[in-house]
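Homework help board

Subject: predicted structure for assignment chain

Our instructor gave us this sequence and asked us to write out the predicted structure in token form, then describe one feature. I got the tokens but I'm not sure how to describe them. Can anyone check?
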Amino acid sequence: CLVVYHAEPDSESAQALRLLASWGADAVRADVGGA
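My token output:
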């Protein structure tokens, strides 16, 4: 599943999306790792 968000490059929403994406990736890695 790939969801593409369109946001201004340096806007608060873009920063929030990057934080959310990085958190989501960490959560997925933790889940896959069995942590």
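Reply (TA_rk): Your tokens look well-formed. For the description, you could write something like this. The chain has a mean pLDDT of 76. That's the kind of observation they're looking for.
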